[in-house]
Fold each of these.
Amino acid sequence: MFKVISNEMVVPNIHLLTVEAPAVAAQIEPGQFVILRSEEDGERIPLSIADWDRDKGTLTFAIVNVGGTTDKLASLRAGTDIPTVVGPLGNATEIGEFGTVVCIGGCYGIGSIYPIARALKEKNNRVITIIEARSSYLLFWEDKYKQVSDKFVTITRDGSRGVRGHITHLPEILGGLPEPANRIIVNGCTFLMKHTSEISRPFGIKTIVSLNPIMIDGTGMCGVCRVSIASKTKFACVDGPDFDGHEVDWAELLQRRKTYIREEAIPLRTSKCEEHAANRRGNIV
Amino acid sequence: MSEPVKRKIDYNRREMPKQLPQVRSHNFYEVALGYPPETAIEEAQRCLQCKKAGCVEKCPVEINIPGFVRCIAEGDFAKGIKILKEKNCLPAVCGRVCPQEEQCESACIMLKKGGQSAIGRLERFLADWEAAQGKLELPEIPKPTGKKVAVVGGGPAGLTVAGDLIKLGHKVTIFEALHKLGGVLIYGIPEFRLPKAIVYREVEYLRMLGVEVVTDFVVGKTRSVENLLREFDAIFIGAGAGLPWFMNIPGENLNGVYSANEYLTRMNLMKGFMFPQYQTPIKEHAKVAVVGGGNVAMDCARTALRLGAETRIIYRRSRQELPARLEEVENAEEEGVIFDFLTLPIRYIGDENGWVKEIEYLKMQLGEPDASGRRSPVPIEGSETILPVDAVVCAIGNSPNPLIPTSTKGLQIGKKGNIVADEATGKTSMEKVWAGGDVVTGAATVILAMGAGRKAARSMHEFLCSG
Ligand SMILES: Cc1cc2nc3c(=O)[nH]c(=O)nc-3n(C[C@H](O)[C@H](O)[C@H](O)COP(=O)(O)OP(=O)(O)OC[C@H]3O[C@@H](n4cnc5c(N)ncnc54)[C@H](O)[C@@H]3O)c2cc1C
């Protein structure tokens, strides 16, 4: 059993859940994920790590409540126990001395891109962080980001804070940098990652995405998380979750994620960014 | 009872009652119902009590078969189960899923006239009898040796090692990646062949003996083998063969194409067949094709059938070459699974939403025997055929999961990703580390995994006592 230390709704519908899991906390690295169950006989769902405290032995997740298991996790109170917290799973995000790195987070990715930005900063990279949401009231951890970023940008669809629009503004942001970016890392909904990869391709900037297909065991046993990378089948749980965004078969991933409409494994259906970006693209053409 | 009187050999192998095919094909209850005591006694009395018992030699864990059978014949079930459990810590499981026809029963001298002793059914009878008594007899545990053993993986191999070593006074902790122990017994083999309550019972028995269980713990991720070695005096790796193979043909990533592991895990571990009581989402499929011919394929097909789909097995060789147990093939046939022999899928075709809607396959004919000794299938030119389906389950095999091999320096790994271990002792290339079961052999059987566990436990015990 794993104890819930705190659980707060940080912005509407996004919950910061902190649980005690010392063995996992001792090992976890940026970009890895953990599988949780909210109750006995509950479903197993993968969640990206948003932060941790090795001394206290705790893990923090940013959970978008889309019903089902995420709803149960969202309503857990401090002091209760949950049956499964297993990890750290997947490979850590590569943290090198890249030079200038653009970190992009949306939805739950506003949580999970944080430890990546922090680790990159510790490696003396120039870190440009972009977080995006529908509206300013859905942005969080801005102060945390400012501490680890050389430049911090927010994008809101309604323009209520920072740049108005979507990640389609990335070229302007890149253009405004004094030096070219060496790498882009995106965490968030599939559509944000797909879109960013499409935009960055002509710039020839390596773009790392953290894929979030349906998963069950998270150890390579079930194979439901298959993704096509450069036309080869990979298991996101053990070969990923990070891949080169320019090599991902996005259409296949989006289609596979729809297999179980009821499946709550991937907490990202409420951001409406898919529709928004589709409209945006319509405008551009 | 006095010495059995000399009598004519009874070749009438007693049938075990089963649910009728037309009934069982709509439910998930166990297919075979077990002997009533009278039948068990009759069956046991047929045993010739050979002095040099071939059955024992053929048993990977060397159960004293004539011994426990004789107890049944004499009506002393309590003594029978004791004898059985001396060598087998999972009798209710083995009585159900062991390929007895290739092992103990194949050595029975009554086999010639088709009357081989029904050893598996008798084993099952005793285990079920004990469970029905409601009280388990726990063996005496010697005083603690002070040695600590870590067992990685809670499948049959790991459970056997745990059971053997705890009974020798060592402290045993099992680390299991999933949230339940049992390995394939829990997530793979379906309820109608092996009720999960039986597996829980066997696991509970180990807990009562004092085995410590840590679930949700992935060795190689949560902690490495090397890290565990700082705390434990010896480690056994029984991580199974959990990495599913695909055929690498076009369309395999369409929606509705599953690995057998995924399909069975959803159903068994996550109780999908009890949807909507349990939340695991299960698609309602109308036409399911299962690719493969082993036990796993039979289990998938019979599961799909029970969920109401028209179900077929697609197998590239003929009925004779099916690797599944004959009993399971017959069960599947009786229940109405369609068998398409000599067919090889070459492509899956999707609809506009990315769901599989058709299989394209080639018809095959049998050619020369291949390395496995079976006649190899050769495609017939121009025989491409389209078959409409709405789900495909790929059950063509598994190999060991690379998590431990890749995270453990110094562990010798074989060509197929298996851990290399000595056959007689289970010793690996790493000091203080043993391995056994599917992770060493590749996908095999429950009893072989248990046999490997037994040998490793023996060697580990020697090591622990010497140091
Ligand atoms: C559907 C199906 C039907 C079968 N039918 C039969 C049958 O009728 N008769 C028969 O004899 N055999 C059958 N088999 C084969 C048999 O089940 C296996 O040979 C046997 O279970 C192998 O035992 P094992 O202990 O080696 O591995 P497993 O049973 O695979 O157990 C391994 C365990 O280790 C865990 N694990 C893996 N990696 C880690 C890690 N890194 N850290 C911690 N834990 C880990 C896994 O989660 C699993 O619980 C069947 C197999 C399947 C899939």
Amino acid sequence: MMNCKRFLMMVLAVSMLLLSACGNAENNSGAKEDSSSGAEGKIKLRIMWWGAQERHEATLAALDLYTKQNPQVTFEPEYSGMDGYLDKLSTQAAADNAPDVVQLDPGWVSDWIGRGQLAELSAVDVSKIDGKLLAAGQNGDTQYAVPLGSVAYGMIYDKTALEKLGAPSPANGWTWDEFFALAKEVKGKLPEGQYFTKDYAGDYFAYSAFQYSKGKGQVVSNEGKFNIDQATFLEWGHQFAELRAEGLVPPADVNTSDKEFDPSMDLMVTGKIIFRLAFSNNYGAWDSLKENAYALVTMPRGVEAGGWLKPSMYFSVAKSSKHAEEAAKFVDWFVNDPEAAKILGTKRGMPVNTEIAAAIEPELSANDKIGMELLTATQKDGQTFSPGAPGWTNYIDKDWLLARDELSFGEATPEEAYEHLKTAAQEYEK
Amino acid sequence: MSNPFKKYSLDNLFFRSFAGLMIVVLAFTVWTSYRISSAEMVRMSTYYQQQFLDKVNNEITSRLSTIEQISLSTSRDNDLNTFMSGKATGLNRVLESRNVKQVLANLTYSMPLIQEIDLYMNNPIEDGVLYNYIQFRALEDTSEEVWSGALSQSDFAWSREHRIRGQQGEIPVLSFARKIVYNDKYLGILVIHIKSDTIKEMLEGSSPGVNRMVLDGTGQYLLTTSEVPDQEHLSKWLQLKKEHLSGARADKGIRLSKSLYVYSELTSFGWVLLEITPWSDITSGSVKLALAIGFIGVGAVLLTLVLTHWLSRQFTKPIKQLVSTMGSYAVGGKVNELPMDYSNEFGALFAGYRKQNERIDELYQSLRERYDQQRKAEISALQANINPHFLYNTLDQMNWMAIAAGHDEMSRILELMGRMFRIGLSNGASFISIEEEITHIESYLEIQQLRWQTGFTFFIDVLPELRGYYLPKIILQPFVENSVMHGFNGRVSGHVEIRIRCVQERLKIRITDNGVGLQATGGPLLNQSRRTGGYGLRNVRDRLEAYFGSPYDFVLQERPEGGTTVEITLPCLDQPYNPADSSGNSGQQP
């Protein structure tokens, strides 16, 4: 009997040991459970662009599609209007914290390349893109920025307001003389608080169009030389001084409050002005704010055309990006993928990929088609676009802005403004 | 209640009690491990949450302090104050505003935490430029802002989380508002909106889905990473927290309504960082552990049960074998062999049983032998009687012939013989009374006297009370015949004495003669040449042996004075002995 007891005790002891051992093992493994739950292989691309609501929505939809096709890539989009965009982007770039993918205006690309802030985009297939558009994104043979679309610069006007005034609608190919004549025509018929157009006296782009139409070339030459034709500038200035005196352009404080595409601050949308400058691809943005109220027309001309075609904008990958390869892959997809093109339409202008442009043309929306008409009308003899000489961005964004306000507030005569601009240009000339 | 150990079968008992013990041990183990580990989990959770909250506390404090400092330095900015005092007009005012906006915008550009900066002032200027991040608003519009209440009592205040419209839709922000006073003149309010998602990310750390929040001093939440507990729980917790503080308890984990509340105080803001963890989350590990132990335990129990089953089988198998062997036992039948290889208690049990069986068999065998002897003796007796009726009738005829011939002696002899035959037959009974036995031997002796004419005498001494006792029939005759045929052979006189006494419950019969004794006759007991005598004595001995066995027997002895003595010892029987009871315990036997 002693043997049996001993055997039983042994069995018991062994089973207890087993139990406690198992218990310990459990304890140990339980402790190190939630340490490694990191997102392996997940990439988050930051992307930044400017635009109107319409472009934001289309772009976000395209990003969603890309994430669906490439689940490892997600996006942290940052988008806004044009105002402050470059400032913000430059600040971030200065902190080496620029988004991975950035949208750049053709005028800025050469500065960014010059500062070495862009990564090479050799991975992007640009074989189907017009070489003229590519040129502005290149340094030597290396592609740093990929064009996204081409747009025409022209005018948009409130056709219902114009009809109410009983004035004729302008036709493509009209002239600056007709523009100013039309202003005179509506004079007196305009209700209180409504004006013919913005005070473009000191507007760099409007004046550029005027100087082009006079056959006087660019405001700043490609070589980086001050090139405002004094007589042309004074003619322009005085024409607007007249409009200002006659109440055909808004007073200064109203003029400065204008905010493009803002439902409550865009002067045309709020019914304060009838004409404003516009890019062909933005028709939809305005139309969404007030349906069927607006029409596009070419930039008024003189001896030469006033308007021009330009690459609307470029995508680049920041040099500081930690996911430059993935970002480049995305840019490639953005310009070459037919499905992406369907979503994006002409929100960034006519697609630069010629095959895709041809493919989506039959499917274009009515609004896109209206933009296309302006594009076609401008294309005929439009001015050749130049990204401008590098280093002049602030001249356009700051010095011209000051000139605009001086003229608008009546603080400077056109002659004084010309002198100011001429003096300011000396800082940028090399 | 009856003792179960006396009631149920052995293997059942063994199995059940062992299984019961295992289950109790298992349940206790599971319960203990759950209790200990969950207590430990709570302690660890509290500790680590506390540490994390303190760390986050530092980070958030430094971030928010930076915002407060920026707000302060901005509010002291000369350009800003000049612009807000609103003295300039026209282009100068536009330029001033643009300048201020640029400064503020640069702040938002360089500090990603800042979502937007609003400036509330008299006669704000409408300016589209830089609209995206900086807004000038009218001072009258402040009443609906979330921070306006707090700001009415202070020069600066934080708001709780709220949403503002931005370029990218509704954006959740925390706002810091500060009154701008310059030269004792109230100019307006500077509001810095910071992205609350950034703070939330700091709160969440690397574990999304946690329930952490920032509460102000009154228990109103400013920011939370998930749902807010209802106000009732929060106020209860605040109450508990106060009690804990007054009790100077270092432990900052409080259990309340199925959740663990851990907090860290942002002293510079008077806020509290609070983390609420559902109790089930904390103890889920313990539950898992308990379950695992439970499962392993159940496995172990099952294994042990199998083992126990096997064990109990091992223990009860020999007992069952023994029981079945005992059940199937039949005397002289086929014996179920018990295993021989047990050397323990079972071995002893088996050996004992085996030995007992052997003894039973032995006993049975001896009984059987005795029974056979008895049968044989009886048959012999019957054979010895030959055909008594025929003899009897013949004797009667001879008697009549002797009477007719005038042989009176012969007639007497024949009469005596007839009496002897009658008694010898006695209807087939094996036992007769002493009275009858005496009659029988007297008849024989008288016949001998008639043959001898003179010289032969006998004396029978029986107490009258013994005459009713029984004894096997014709016990005396062989001895007396022996004395007459051998002891007195060739002699002219002889005397035979028969004495019957009852001594100590035993019938003692002594037969003495004065014959030649044993030597002269050459040992009549075993002398086969004298068939009659030898056969007679052997017959007596066999019968005694068959009926009674030892110590009932007879002894032949030489008398010193000459002659032979026979001492017969028999039981005292007051009724005929029943041979069927011979192996039983009839009570008559000593």
Amino acid sequence: MNPLQKHVEKLFAGYPPTRQVRELKAEILSNLEAKAADLTAEGMEYAQAVEAAKANMTSVEGLLEEQASYDISKYRTAMLQTALLYCLIAWIITIPMRLFRVAENLSLLLPLIALVLGLIYLIVRGAAAGDAMKTSSFNHAAAVLSRNLAWIIWGLFFLTMTMYTTVLHMGSNIWFGRPLHLSGPYQFGVLAANYAWPLVTIIIPLLFSASLRLKIKYEAGSRHVD
Amino acid sequence: MWTKNKTILLLAAAGILLFAAVQNVVLPQWDRNAEIYAAEQQSPLTHHLESITKYHNKYMGNASNISNLMHSLPLNEVRSTMQLYPDSLTADILYHADTADLDSAKLERSLIYNATAAFALIDNLKQIRFKFDDRVYIAERSRLEAWYGKKPSSLTDSPKIWIPVVQDPLADLSYVQKGIASLFTVTDA
């Protein structure tokens, strides 16, 4: 990476790799290289020319639009597919928990959700095939905030559930200073399943992350090959 | 996209197979095993010592412990309540049934077995009275010690002691009748 490329990367540090950012980066880099080449042609030393070109562009604030737009039908199809995939994985994880009578309702609810998602996915996919491209705009900063908020709320939920399970199963042992007694592998399984089932809900914040990722992936004008 | 769809189909198939295996094979087998185990716990000849050793306690005044112990022993299918007399270190187990309505061989085996378990696991219990609607069986620690020729607490050290000394002899009806006569004072209620 030459000094001008490094400078451009520094200018765009913290910006998401959207199409607009990628294009602007390429444009600024080419302008800076042209400027440095002009100065060198005028007799300036290369290092000095680079410094002069860099001094010309110290910030990209105001050059980027806050709103980006994405292809709605591609985004919806991919999002439904991802949700379906996560839902099936979560379901498979909950099935062994049925052996210990833990998360029984969840292991019945998840395949139903997967079935509904599967049907919607097939409908949306079929409809999207013949549609002309429709776009919608999104605010990247707001989407990042939503994603982070989803992770924070999920983290708090998981922490609360872990504490609840600990208090429920070991509260009196901790309070009276007695060692924890597990009478066999079945009791261990029950305890492990009680700790593990809230982890399954991680698919919710994961879907928020996927949503942001897919909006960037299907940004209007960009091309992707699956 | 197609690879993801293939993965989805594979996961759906795996989920359906796993769910069917758990619901139709594993859980019914576990339930059958649990039923067999529960049935074994109701007979003094097949009861498992391991299921009651956790109720070992120094004091008969620990009501929840002694109650849990009695509900883990044979005769637990008969509705019962309990009264404790800590001053005389005596526990009354009140069975709400007539002895005439119960299988007499099973009843007598269970009384010997339950009294032995109670004295072996509750260190300061001196007397236990099994009160039925029509009859009362009173057992004392001193008579139990004389019957087995050793401290009751030593019987629960291992199933290798418990089974040949306490459990197996109960298969012999003459031993059971002798045990009832030697261990219990029987009175009408």
Amino acid sequence: MLSFLRRSYLNFSFMNPQYCCLSRNFSAALPPLLPVQLPSRMETHLWYVVPDEVKSAPLLSKYMELLPQSERDHVLGFRGDQLQKSALLARTLVRTTIARYQVDGHLDPRSLRFKRNIHGKPEVEWETKDGFCPPPLQFNISHTSSLVACGVTINSLIGIDVEEKRRRTKNNILAFAKRYFTAHEVEHLNAIPDSELQQQEFIKLWTLKEAYVKALGKGFSSSPFNTFTIRASSGIAVETLDSPQNLTNNWQFALLELMGSHYVAICLERQETGGAGKTLPIKLTARKTIPFVEDELVSGTNAVVTIGGSVTQF
Amino acid sequence: MASITRASVSMPSLSTSVNQSQRRISVMNSVSFPVSGRSMIPSLRLQRGLQVCCAAKQETVDKVVAIVKKQLALPADAAVTGESKFAALGADSLDTVEIVMGLEEEFDITVEEESAQSITTVQEAADMIEKLVEK
């Protein structure tokens, strides 16, 4: 039975079968998930996985077994090894992370059900048993082939977007911005003489705008990118075209540079102010993880650098 | 070529319900194909009788395929058909917007953001283009 399982892993083409020195034997059952405490009302948890660091074929196979058939089909529908792997890790990260918060008293990532709200935003569908009132856990996922991330809050709507710093657009940046961004943003990009910096600013703007739309949860078409401006001079704020005089105070942003290679934009619904309309910084806990294997607290280290917005890392 | 053969042989087992671990393993065995297991025949004309007369539609689809391949840096011989979903090919939201921008330039049309979100496959893009070009 075990050797049969091992042979089958080699055919899962996105798994690297050359990982021979497993410190844990994943032919057996997965170890239990370690529980974590829910974030407090003022906190944001950021979890991320680096796909290149997950090399164990048996482990990836076990991840696949956590998913319902519909999600497995979805993962396998992606074209090619890398895309399938990051899609698998995204589903695994969201299921294991939410399970670890033990909201319903147990830790089974398989039993989580997800639904979409009327606008298509994914949400957890909690079992409603006997007066059980699930806490208002909010989450959002983003992934590229090189990074998979999940943000979690209690109560605060959240949107996150990740992108490689060196991501290049096929179209000319200014042509693209003129078509899809606001005039202010075009001006901001146009004023950057260095093309490399301009590219990076574009990616930062893109991730911030994506994070905002994802936090709103209504989809790209209900908040077209040219209907709101992200201003990132001192702090980051969003200004919608229909109320240009009022910076939309409901949302706060963080922009992080992760591992020197990725931008992570986080948009949060503002919960409380520090009195007199002052915004409290985002309290961020960031952990790099390989589900069932290890966690590393990375907030406050070089791995997570705040490059925009008001953030306290701990 | 061998991998395509494997794909076409293994397609039926994808729909097998996988309750027992052994059957689950056999599905895993059969699904590792590097190219889509869908139709390998690029021309939709033979597949969809309704479109036999409409050479423009095929040409539109071909142009969309070319733009998608360029945006996603796919090899020229990658199997991309009308059914192909942008996301499955590796397009994220930025790629999708760039693809739409490429289509706007190629066909001299303007795609409203509301419509852009509903384009998820090559065929949907081609159909939308045809509608806009007719106007």
